[in-house]
Amino acid sequence: MTEPDPPPAGVAQALYDRRDGRLALEVVDAPAAELARPHRTNYFTAYWVRAGRGTFHADGTRHPFAAPCLLFLTPYQAARLDPDDHLHVTAVRFHANFLCVETHHHEVGCNGVLFNDPYGPPAVTLDESTEREVADLVARMRAELDTAGLAQAELLLSYLKILLVRATRLKRGQQGTAGGGVRLPPPLPELRELVERHYRRLHAPADYADLLHATPKALGRLVKQHLGKTLTELIRERVLNHAKWELLHTLKPVKEVAREVGFDDELYFSRLFRKATGMSPTGFRAFETDVRGGSNLSMPSARPSIPPPPPTGQNADRPASDPPEPGA
């Protein structure tokens, strides 16, 4: 059994592991004192901020927030919430074992919008109507978790998908704006296109400044002002999103993954990866593969994630792995 790497000093790490018997979905009221400390999980997380305001820190980036809103956190990001006044926050956390937003992106459309989005703010503002919707969905999830009735997982998954789809639609409607409805200035839309095109080989802010005919200082100031992070952090986040996907969905060696995102030095890439996730690339892959049981991955698994149905009828004597013959 693969154990997770020990967390870096100063970061509270609580990782979901199905082998502990815990559910892959939880809905909890998160204590403000706990949220104020740097913490990391391997859950996809939605924080419903019901009261209060403050600053949301994720991997060194800073974003102001004010209730009512939703804040989204991608697995393995180190985060904390600095409150300006009393916070009331409910956390909806789910592991990829419950819903992998990357593999099932077509079902909810939130990957790259709510999660794994280095270009947009992590907050979705709620009005009175949409907060009532969120409150209703959270209450339904809580009630279902308490009762454990027939088809519990199917109902919970339905409620979660509705929450994510509604939040994705809201954020898409709010994208391109910063607080107060101000349009993001050029050349930030052009910068996004350039990073998507070149992040595997261009890692220096000066490279993008040259392509945009801007000075690195002026471009960096715009990125920091409107995206809450440095241009270096933006590029690095995009690189690491790609690397994590490759580690979880392919059998490529770490050295090959490193080279694919522009790093010839595997050791330097591994240090960068560990700093961002709290785990080495090898440890990250091994732990998450064990936790997921091979589900949604291109890795061999000791058991299928969904057991095959027992053979019935005319095919009862045929091995389960053999496809039925034509016309059967």
Automatic annotation (TrEMBL):
<dbReference type="InterPro" id="IPR020449">
    <property type="entry name" value="Tscrpt_reg_AraC-type_HTH"/>
</dbReference>
<keyword id="KW-0804">Transcription</keyword>
<dbReference type="InterPro" id="IPR018060">
    <property type="entry name" value="HTH_AraC"/>
</dbReference>
<dbReference type="GO" id="GO:0043565">
    <property type="term" value="F:sequence-specific DNA binding"/>
</dbReference>
<dbReference type="Pfam" id="PF12833">
    <property type="entry name" value="HTH_18"/>
</dbReference>
<dbReference type="InterPro" id="IPR037923">
    <property type="entry name" value="HTH-like"/>
</dbReference>
<protein>
    <submittedName>
        <fullName>Arabinose operon regulatory protein</fullName>
    </submittedName>
</protein>
<keyword id="KW-0238">DNA-binding</keyword>
<keyword id="KW-0805">Transcription regulation</keyword>
<dbReference type="GO" id="GO:0003700">
    <property type="term" value="F:DNA-binding transcription factor activity"/>
</dbReference>
<feature type="region of interest" description="Disordered">
    <location>
        <begin position="290"/>
        <end position="328"/>
    </location>
</feature>
<feature type="domain" description="HTH araC/xylS-type">
    <location>
        <begin position="189"/>
        <end position="287"/>
    </location>
</feature>
<dbReference type="InterPro" id="IPR009057">
    <property type="entry name" value="Homeodomain-like_sf"/>
</dbReference>
